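Reviewer comment 2.1 asked that we show a complete input and output for one of the modelled complexes. We chose the flavin-adenine dinucleotide case, as it is the one discussed in the main text.
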Amino acid sequence: MADNDFDFDLFVIGTGPGGEGAAMQARKGGLRVGIAERYRQIGGGCTHWGTIPSKALRYTITSTMNVMKNPVFREMGIHTSPTMEQLRRGTAEIIAKQVTMRQSFYDRNSVPIYFGHARFVDDHTVTIENGETVRSKAFVISTGTRPYRPPEVDFDHPRIFDSDTILDLAEKPTSITIYGAGVIGTEYASMYRNIGVKVNLVNTRGKLLEFLDDEIVDALSYHLRDQGVVIRHNETFDRIEGQDDGVVLHLQSGKQIKSDVFLWANGRTGNTDDLGLDAIGLVPNKRGQLDVDDQFQTAKKHIYAVGDVIGYPSLASAAYTQGRAAGMHVLGRKDGNLRVKDLPTGIYTSPEISSVGQTERELTERRVPYEVGQSQFKSLARAQIMGTTVGMLKILFHRETLKILGVHCFGANASEIVHIGQAVMDSEDLTLEYFVETTFNYPTMAEAYRVAALNGYNRLF
Ligand SMILES: Cc1cc2nc3c(=O)[nH]c(=O)nc-3n(C[C@H](O)[C@H](O)[C@H](O)COP(=O)(O)OP(=O)(O)OC[C@H]3O[C@@H](n4cnc5c(N)ncnc54)[C@H](O)[C@@H]3O)c2cc1C
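Response of the prediction step:
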């Protein structure tokens, strides 16, 4: 078919980070690009229900609580407790700023946005709910996910929430039970504990966040418990009973936990069920996710899928890079030098966690001769000054080549700190010696790299 048989070279469905990355990359490469969005504003779940609102709320909670704990304020007799409404106030402003900024990308680059639910009717045609039809040579599906809602749980009950609806919680609860101890569950556990709510965190597995380095997981478990979070592992719900004055979680083990409110944070479903996939012969898996190859192509080579709708790692950061990679592939380039594997993880618990590269467990299983260098934040002048002494940086490196193999960090600003190690790890030329030989500003948290590198270096014989 000739180009003028199509309205677009690329049509993207969903304006989250995955869709935006794909649309902008393809447009900058000179393609005719359009995008559909069923929500009334662009930005995706990332901007409206996921990353941005949760991180904005977390920041407000942490900074407010730090002020409240400050001995100077205590001495002045200031003892107040902010309301949920006050804590949330800043979030709406940040979302609005994000939407305005992201909208300007589409406007400046002349990418038309079709507001309405998009559905495939054939291999090259999509209809939009508002009645419009578009034809495109290629597509990117970046429709994201939504919280999985088991039918037996009554999400209409005013005390039962999922990770989308919890954002509208009007009053600060006295207690909360969080079912599901993945990234979202543990982040919310930390957040609610920080504002003084009693938190029960129920984990369906044997350990928290098993994909992380064991020592980091142990540290997280210790600090959550130390802050007062009650964690229960290896539990499965039997039923969830909403009452007038609370919610009772009945566990298959026979235990019962009653709390003021209940947050379901166990699993997400891909937004593929009403996308007209049957019209084009694409079949999602039982979680509603689509399979893709290394270039993010589905079984239909002209239809790409990126972001949460393809599953792991389900991070905004990854979705954006994947979208750009798909956009480049549509342009006829492979994914260039985009690093779509070995992505960093940032988990905004208290303490914050971040890691990149391999864990000790993986290196041991692969029989890689590695060594460890550690730096405790409590020994860093900057951490002492800031009062953020909980934390550790751990560098894993090859004991012969000194190449960095993994960087694992917990503590204040871990998700920023990890990127220094990532840059050195990804470099062809640099090794652990870079940290041993380099002068770091003093006092900084970055100094942790020199301390950890020397600690590891001195173990070699
Ligand atoms: C509570 C929470 C906290 C999180 N925190 C972080 C974090 O700190 N860091 C991080 O990296 N990630 C975080 N994430 C994950 C992150 O939000 C997602 O990885 C990211 O949003 C995925 O981007 P996406 O483009 O794939 O999809 P989304 O951002 O979900 O966007 C999908 C868009 O597609 C639209 N859409 C769906 N179907 C259709 C259709 N048929 N027609 C038209 N439009 C459609 C939706 O309305 C939506 O706007 C968090 C998630 C949650 C829930």
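The mean pLDDT is 95. We note this here for comparison with the apo prediction described in Section 3.2.
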